[in-house]
Design a protein that fits this description.
Length: 435
């Protein structure tokens, strides 16, 4: 189990460039299975979860060549479907949540897709019903081996249909879209997710010859085509990492420039941090965070009541940033209620922050009230274990602002989502060592 040792209390300075978006990468990489032609993908983040998916594709028989840093070509012209029934696939696929999105492309192109029950972050229940109900509506037959926790869908030919999703699941929408592009006839998906990463996937598929309309809305119409061709695609910067660096700059009272953030795809993120009193300046396509030497003050609602920050499907705030926002609030002036609606275990890391001296009341599994210190007292260094990717980085930000030397164990969780995070933080002045 890897460990970070962090000496906190240092101001940071300089520029940091966000990696390619992890959540987009997991969708885009699965989509290479939809064509036998070469597909080039740029700005792929070098992180554990993405590298696991690339290895799975290689084991499936996809020909992969690395062109340069973050740039690969993929050619799925000789896919080994027998691998899907192998013990190795059942083991490797289980360790990656994003492996579920292999099913849609495999079902569309080859008439069958299988997956072991995927793992991932321990943040609460993450059901797969939306995915498989969509496949069934397209005409697939579903089967489930309870002994091996192994799912499967099969179909001679998928047929387009109308469907109203029970939730606006990003991965569920992506999976169904990838299945529907090769289905016979027209598919209409209502209550579809419309996150920028899903828009990126749809635009890429259209460049490959798909016919998807309504991109960016919650109503997608897909006219099935017989086959797809190759293309080149460049991924967006990771909006969760951008939010992490905004929070880091504020908590450490540092001056920081975040480069090439794709402002038009950030949605509510700058607005929410501004509600916490953080000065988020736009400079061309960069974000500049000045030193908050006088701290930052949380806004109240216009009637004077306490601010509530909650997650919601796009264009609402992504749930992946709520843990960062919670940590940042611990040093603000004022109070805020954090309401995590989507995952019932994601706030359980706050006990570590309370140990560090933060004033937090965990109301229930979904809500926490934070009373900010206004930098009148610093958080205290401690020893922690990273429970998941986002909580792990939140604890890392807390440690970088704290007085003394903190230790974070189980940093493999952080490595799953953040590329060379210790090296990049040292480059802007952080005192962090990987042990």
């Amino acid at each position: 189990m890897g460990t970070f040792r962090i000496e906190g209390g240092h101001q940071l300075h300089g520029e940091i460039t966000p990696q390619g978006a992890k959540n987009e990468a997991l969708q885009i990489l699965c989509a290479v299975l939809l064509s036998e032609e070469k597909i080039t993908i740029n700005n792929i983040p070098d992180i554990v979860d993405v590298n696991k998916l690339i290895a799975l594709l290689e084991d499936l028989g996809v020909k992969i060549q690395k062109k340069g840093s973050g740039s690969y070509t993929f050619k799925a012209d000789d896919v080994n479907l027998d691998y899907l029934q192998s013990a190795k696939f059942k083991e490797d696929g289980r360790g990656l949540r994003g492996s579920i999105m292999l099913v849609g492309p495999l079902l569309a192109r080859f008439g069958k897709g299988y997956i072991p029950k995927p793992g991932g972050d321990k943040i609460g229940r993450r059901r797969l019903d939306t995915h498989f109900e969509g496949f069934i509506k397209l005409g697939a037959k579903f089967r489930y081996n309870k002994e091996e926790y192994f799912y499967g869908v099969e179909a001679d030919k998928l047929k387009g249909t109308y469907m109203l999703l029970d939730e606006a699941s990003v991965t569920g929408t992506a999976n169904i879209v990838m299945a529907a592009v090769l289905a016979e006839g027209t598919t209409t998906i209502y209550n579809a997710a419309c996150e920028p990463y899903l828009q990126q996937l749809c635009n890429m598929l259209n460049r490959m010859g798909a016919k998807i309309s309504g991109i960016g809305s919650n109503l997608l119409t897909i006219e099935g085509v017989d086959s797809l061709k190759g293309t080149e695609h460049t991924m967006l910067p990771d909006m969760i990492e951008i939010g992490s660096w905004i929070g880091l700059a504020a908590m450490t009272q540092s001056e920081l420039t975040i480069k090439n953030v794709s402002w038009g795809d950030l949605g509510q993120i700058p607005t929410v941090f501004r509600k916490l009193g953080i000065n988020v300046e736009r400079r061309d396509d960069d974000i500049f965070i000045p030193k908050h030497e006088e701290g930052y003050e949380i806004q109240n609602f216009i009637d004077g009541s306490i601010l509530t920050i909650a997650d919601a499907p796009w264009p609402g705030l992504t749930p992946d940033l709520l843990s960062i926002i919670l940590v940042v609030a611990t040093q603000a002036r004022g109070e805020v209620l954090i309401h995590q609606k989507m995952f019932e275990s994601r706030l359980f890391f706050v006990d570590k922050l309370i140990d560090m001296g933060a004033k937090i009341i965990l109301c229930d599994p979904h809500r926490a009230t934070v009373i900010g210190h206004d930098f009148k007292s610093t958080l205290k260094a401690t020893t922690m274990v990273s429970p998941d990717i986002r909580a792990g980085v939140s604890l890392l930000i807390a440690a970088l602002s704290a007085k003394g030397t903190s230790t974070i164990h189980n940093i493999e969780q952080i490595d799953r989502g953040y590329e060379n995070i210790d090296e990049r933080l040292r480059a802007i002045g952080a005192n962090i060592v990987r042990v």
